[in-house]
Amino acid sequence: MNNNKVFGLLLLVGSLGFIFAMNVAEFLFPGYSVSNNYISDLGAMCRAGSCRIIQPSSTIFNTSIILLGIAIIAASIIMAMPREGPKLFPSLFAISGVGAIMVGLFPEYTGSLHSISALIVFLFGGLAAIASYKLQGSPMNIISIILGLLTLSSLALYVTGHYLGLGPGGMERMIVYPALLWGAAFGAYMVGRADS
């Protein structure tokens, strides 16, 4: 199995696995609102100095985002291995993977550690999607740029408190879903390219 195929499989399985696990965690969390709850509430929900950990949602969410981060870092290492290979993309992508692991290790009750971790995964995930355009042909390279820009522009709106009527949870999903969709699509693209 060549490096492109392993890279693609890690990215595809990691992205789809996290989407699936996040949805299962939402279903098992009583009263969870995708509009009003943050995604990280699934790991630990903290409001006004009080935190609630809802099981099994917490374990599912924290474990799945750590596994996603591990898959991203492993894929980044594989992409960076050839001496003549790309350097910017795997570096940005690896940083986003570290951020994902940190989100799982530092739930909401850790305060600023969690916020910094989420910012790292959001920011560097969007930048990695844009930087990946050099590794793809048309139209996938254009789709990657668009999804990366959606993630970054949604992050800017989220940080400035502009939720566009979606609520904080809905706006957060406008950051996360384009990045996850890019991960799944780019992973599938790399697997297909390895086979052609």
List key phrases describing it.
3% strand; transmembrane; globular; 196 residues; Membrane protein; mainly alpha
Topology at a glance:
Layout (H helix, E strand, L loop, with lengths): L2 H25 L17 E3 L2 E3 L4 H24 L7 H18 L6 H20 L8 H20 L7 H29 L1
Antiparallel strand pairs: 1-2
Descriptive account of the structure:
InterPro entries: DUF998. This is Membrane protein. It holds the Pfam family DUF998. By secondary structure, the protein is mostly helical. It has one domain. It is built from six helices and two strands, in the order H-E-E-H-H-H-H-H. A two-stranded antiparallel sheet has the order 1-2. Helix 1 packs antiparallel against helix 6. The longest helix has 29 residues. The radius of gyration is 16 Å and the shape is globular.
